[in-house]
Amino acid sequence: MARPVYSSFLQPATYPSGCGRREFPDDHVAPARCAGVLKADAYGLDAAKIAPLLHREGCRTFFVAQLCEAFDIRDAVGADSDILILNSLDPDDEARCAKGGFIPELNSRAQVERWRRQARANGEPLPAALQVDSGMSRLCLDSPAVASLAGDPDSSREISLRLIMTHLACADQMDHAANDMQLGRFRSDCLLFPNVPASIVNSGGVFLSRDYHLDLARAGISLFGASAGAHAGRLRPVLRLDARILQIREIGAGTGVGYDLDYVAPVARRIATIGVGYGDGWPRSLGGVGAACFDGHRLPVVGRVSMDSLTIDISGLPAHALHEGDLVELLGPSQSLAEVVPDAGTISYEILTRLGVRHQRICADGDRIVASVAGRRQ
Ligand SMILES: *Cc1c(COP(=O)(O)O)cnc(C)c1O
């Protein structure tokens, strides 16, 4: 039975400075705090399993995108943690959110009004965060709405403001002028709320400079040792994706392999079919250009990536190095996410969030397995 193994080795020393084993945030952003962003099921890795590990490391602020994701991790993070909802709430979800004890980001005047109405109904102020526009124009309150909230003496009786935040459009580009421009605009909005903690950086922004750390960093992809753009390679990768060999075939010169016989062996070859395909989130664009790895050897993908399998050329290995049932590495110490990304024509975020439900997910702390979630096919 094919059983791809996905292992997320979640260790805190994923920032370039390294960090204290028991400390989260680590010294790279201290004295700022570091929040864990666990949206999209922790980037496809299983939020409910990863959240308690972060909590154990000292993380007490978690971000998700949707209300349902907040419920997914609520029991895992303990009552001493805050869970913020980046996309805020659909109309009529306010009561459920308030009852769950979650903190919505308020991204529009309508959301502010609905949350204030809920607070009046509850008869007490409700916690909220403001996501303000600093130049990205994605999901945020514009400046006049921010100013009118700041100038409204009644608002503090209804909203207990826990965070003011914004998001950088170009955090992965060290020298992009938009970064300083956004920081400047954000700082002036923060002056309206002098006692409220502020946050601007995601993983990439952490590397820009200390000026950007403010009170809280929001680390998502860097928790898994991956990063994008100029910062790629600055973190220690902690992910592995292994795939099982389903079959090994000796083929003669002139034999075609896979859909459309896209690959035709120029000479006799040994081909292994492995049990991961685009249905498991492995990009179809890696057909003919990607590779798997084994024992320091690069094993090129030959032919198309199928839905449930792909084929690799293992002729470069000694004849009995690999057998059916063995595992080869798709991501890990021999091939990082950052190395796969250019050929895949996408970004590391997309590869992670597409890893499907058929992978077994193993969460390990060093060599110790702390959580394992069986893949769908078992
Ligand atoms: C996704 C997201 C983050 C985390 O981004 P990473 O690049 O994964 O660290 C932080 N803030 C907001 C608003 C986001 O949408």
Automatic annotation (TrEMBL):
<dbReference type="GO" id="GO:0008784">
    <property type="term" value="F:alanine racemase activity"/>
</dbReference>
<feature type="binding site">
    <location>
        <position position="307"/>
    </location>
    <ligand>
        <name>substrate</name>
    </ligand>
</feature>
<dbReference type="Pfam" id="PF00842">
    <property type="entry name" value="Ala_racemase_C"/>
</dbReference>
<dbReference type="Pfam" id="PF01168">
    <property type="entry name" value="Ala_racemase_N"/>
</dbReference>
<comment type="function">
    <text>Catalyzes the interconversion of L-alanine and D-alanine. May also act on other amino acids.</text>
</comment>
<comment type="pathway">
    <text>Amino-acid biosynthesis; D-alanine biosynthesis; D-alanine from L-alanine: step 1/1.</text>
</comment>
<protein>
    <recommendedName>
        <fullName>Alanine racemase</fullName>
        <ecNumber>5.1.1.1</ecNumber>
    </recommendedName>
</protein>
<dbReference type="InterPro" id="IPR029066">
    <property type="entry name" value="PLP-binding_barrel"/>
</dbReference>
<comment type="similarity">
    <text>Belongs to the alanine racemase family.</text>
</comment>
<feature type="modified residue" description="N6-(pyridoxal phosphate)lysine">
    <location>
        <position position="39"/>
    </location>
</feature>
<dbReference type="InterPro" id="IPR020622">
    <property type="entry name" value="Ala_racemase_pyridoxalP-BS"/>
</dbReference>
<dbReference type="InterPro" id="IPR011079">
    <property type="entry name" value="Ala_racemase_C"/>
</dbReference>
<dbReference type="InterPro" id="IPR000821">
    <property type="entry name" value="Ala_racemase"/>
</dbReference>
<keyword id="KW-0413">Isomerase</keyword>
<keyword id="KW-0663">Pyridoxal phosphate</keyword>
<feature type="active site" description="Proton acceptor; specific for L-alanine">
    <location>
        <position position="259"/>
    </location>
</feature>
<dbReference type="InterPro" id="IPR009006">
    <property type="entry name" value="Ala_racemase/Decarboxylase_C"/>
</dbReference>
<feature type="binding site">
    <location>
        <position position="138"/>
    </location>
    <ligand>
        <name>substrate</name>
    </ligand>
</feature>
<feature type="domain" description="Alanine racemase C-terminal">
    <location>
        <begin position="238"/>
        <end position="364"/>
    </location>
</feature>
<dbReference type="InterPro" id="IPR001608">
    <property type="entry name" value="Ala_racemase_N"/>
</dbReference>
<feature type="active site" description="Proton acceptor; specific for D-alanine">
    <location>
        <position position="39"/>
    </location>
</feature>
